[in-house]
Write a structure and sequence with these properties.
- The protein is mainly beta.
- It has a single domain, classed as Lipid/polyisoprenoid-binding, YceI-like (Lipocalin, Beta Barrel).
- The protein has 1 helix and 15 strands.
- The strands form 3 sheets. Strands 1-4-7-9-10-11-12-15 form an 8-stranded antiparallel barrel. A two-stranded antiparallel ribbon has the order 5-6.
Length: 179
């Protein structure tokens, strides 16, 4: 089993939602993802016959929608002092086709933990001229839709503007094997 560290510079989180006026797009303000993934790699793929675990953290305050109204309201609405992190823990992994995995995940956000499953792309980097580096690299990409009300968050209504409760979260984790 190899321990991989999430590369905060090369990893990304993108959030998309809608308001009554226009679409909303949020991103991480800086390289702020952290975490580890434990996996066994054999023949250029993750060996799912061995346990696979992981934990990734994201500081909520680092999310920016590029709109001062949203960015001022977000820390208040999400109570970032009390709940500073979004934490995702990998509880199980199974095959879902070539370079695809079905991940069972626990997401803790705003003090509430919810379980969900999602199919993701998993690429073991290297050799083939991929853009993500050497064979000691994992690239995990996926997207999931969330209703923030499931996490006891009520979408804001500000000055006649209402934010819809559904958000799409797209993540690309780049993790490098520890030396």
């Amino acid at each position: 089993m190899t321990l991989y560290d999430v590369d905060p510079v090369r990893s990304s989180v993108n959030v998309s939602g809608k308001s009554s006026l226009h679409p909303m797009h949020g991103t991480a303000r800086s390289a702020c993802l952290s975490g580890t993934i434990e996996a066994t790699v054999a023949a250029g793929a993750v060996d799912l016959s061995c346990p696979t675990r992981g934990r990734v953290e994201f500081p909520v305050a680092q999310l920016s929608f590029g709109n001062s109204l949203y960015d001022r309201e977000l820390p208040k609405r999400l109570d970032t002092r009390r709940y500073p992190l979004i934490v995702v823990e990998l509880t199980a992994a199974a095959g879902a086709g070539e370079s695809r995995m079905r991940l069972d995940l626990d997401l803790t956000f705003h003090g509430v933990t919810r379980h969900f499953s999602e199919d993701v792309s998993v690429v073991v980097g290297g050799g083939g001229g991929g853009s993500h580096g050497d064979s000691g690299t994992l690239v995990i990409s996926g997207r999931h839709s969330f209703d923030v009300r499931d996490f006891d968050v009520q979408p804001p209504k500000i000055l006649g503007l209402s934010v819809k409760p559904d958000f799409d979260v797209e993540v690309e984790l780049v993790a490098r094997a520890q030396a």
